[in-house]
Design goal:
With 363 residues, the chain is mostly beta strands. The protein has 3 domains: 18-125, Immunoglobulin-like; 131-242, Immunoglobulins (Immunoglobulin-like, Sandwich), CATH 2.60.40; 250-360, Immunoglobulin-like (Sandwich), CATH 2.60.40.10. 9% of the residues lie in helices and 53% in strands. The chain has helices spanning 3-20, 131-134, 208-211, 250-254, and strands at 26-28, 32-39, 45-53, 61-63, 71-75, 85-92, 99-109, 115-125, 137-139, 142-144, 149-155, 159-168, 174-179, 185-189, 193-194, 198-207, 215-225, 232-242, 259-261, 266-273, 277-286, 292-299, 304-308, 312-313, 318-326, 332-343, 350-360. It has a 5-stranded antiparallel β-sheet. Strand 17 and strand 18 (232-242) form a beta hairpin. The protein is globular, with a radius of gyration of 26 Å.
Length: 363
């Protein structure tokens, strides 16, 4: 057999093997929806993107987050067999929106083309805004345009600005300054003195690398004024920090770590008496090809203590996250605690673990 014939035979064999492998394929009826014109006061609008598994293997939707908090999503959670169908729902809330809004939903699956972007457009006619709509939070004689600074999701190497409008409701000028800002937050004002019955702005900049932390975080900063009602005003600055996986090459994504829980991600600890300490473990395995790093495991309440067996898990190795829940001062049916897990897995940079159970009152 000459070299050309040998090469042809190799290519035919490789093609036959590839053809024999089973794969899931996801095909949407459409990946775009235009809601048209809606009115803010009419509330939420919903669209459903239907799809079919046109492949030869079972299809699973891993996640389908929206590009903003104004949109919530849901999808078919059960596995879809070949030829089966499912959906992804996008629920848009027009509250405090006006004009044209374009958003998207990123659908990640186990299909060959694992990521599909669903887009939608909506034109919102905003309702006439009242003063309280523009300034929902009041601290003394100063009104604020929001209850907190919300930087939303940030990358660990990102620097992000935010702005909040303020209004001096008093009949005298108000001086503004910040005291003892943390190193990762800087702040300035449109004017350090706001005239009576006048608007102003606070500008902040958040440096995630200086914060050097992961997960959902919040800082309390102190705005100092000469307001005779409440001179010192606490403001919350919130951010959710993760790695920037968009920088990864295709090869890096193929060789990335992959967290897979061998135990259920929601665990029921049953019935206990108030005051007992409940211990629950979540076991997982790194099914990827590079080390898995548990960046952070943060409880939603102070009554939960978390220990991680090891923060770096090699490919093929296992680990566990152990929760100790002190039920003192907790009671009721279906009492829940939530743990937010942050990892370097590109598909599951955030994982939510839940423990739940019934806590009976002390006699």
């Amino acid at each position: 057999m000459n070299f050309k014939s040998f090469l042809t035979a190799i290519l035919i064999a490789a093609s036959s093997i590839a053809f024999a492998q089973k794969h899931a394929y996801i095909k949407f009826d459409t990946t775009y929806h235009d809601f048209g014109i809606i009115h803010e006061e009419d509330g939420k609008v919903v669209t459903k993107f239907n799809f079919t598994n046109t492949g030869s293997d079972t299809l699973k939707i891993i996640t389908a987050p929206a590009s903003c908090s104004c949109t919530t999503t849901d999808w078919t959670h059960k596995p879809i067999p070949p030829g089966g169908s499912g959906y992804v729902v996008a629920d848009f809330n027009p509250y405090r929106h006006s004009g044209v809004t374009e958003k998207h939903v990123t659908v990640t699956t186990n299909a060959i083309d694992s990521v599909v972007i669903l887009n939608f457009k909506v034109t919102t006619i905003g309702r006439a805004k009242t003063f309280n709509d523009s300034f929902p939070e009041r601290k003394g004689n100063l009104y604020f345009g929001d209850k907190q600074f919300n930087l939303k999701t940030m990358y660990i190497d990102q620097v992000k600005p935010d702005t909040m409008e303020i209004y001096n409701i008093s009949n005298k000028p108000m001086k503004l300054s910040f005291a003892n800002l943390p190193a990762h937050i800087s702040a300035t004002f449109s004017s350090e003195t706001i005239a009576p019955l006048t608007r102003g702005k606070i500008f902040i900049t958040y440096n995630a690398s200086k914060k050097n932390d992961y997960g959902t975080l919040s800082d309390t900063i102190i705005l100092t004024t000469d307001d005779n009602l409440i001179p010192s005003k606490q403001l919350i600055v919130a951010a959710t920090i993760t790695d920037d996986f968009a920088k990864l090459t295709r090869e890096q994504k193929d060789n990335a770590p992959k967290i897979s829980f061998t135990s259920k991600e929601t665990q029921d600890f049953g019935v206990v008496n108030e005051g007992e300490k409940v211990k629950v473990s979540f076991d997982f395995k790194n099914e990827g090809k590079s080390p898995l790093i548990i960046r952070k495991a943060a409880p939603g309440r102070e009554d939960c203590k978390i220990t991680v067996t090891k923060s770096t898990i090699e490919a093929g190795d296992t680990g566990s996250i152990n929760i100790e829940f002190d039920t003192k001062n907790s009671r009721g049916v279906d009492t829940r605690r939530t743990i937010l897990l942050t990892t370097n897995d590109p598909q599951y940079s955030f994982k939510i673990l839940i423990i739940k159970g019934n806590i009976t009152s002390k006699q």
